[in-house]
Amino acid sequence: MVLFFMSDIIVASVIAAAVGATVAFFWLRAKGVITITKVEKAQPTDPIVIGLRENAVLFGQLYEAMYLVSKGRSAKVRTGFAAWNNRIDTLDDDSEFVMAFREEFGDFEDWKEKKAVRKAGKLVKAFKKAGILRDKDVSVFAEDDFAEKYNVVGGVVEEGEELDVLSPFWSFEGEVIEKGVAR
Question: Are strands 180-182 and 150-152 parallel, antiparallel or unpaired?
Answer without folding.
Answer: parallel
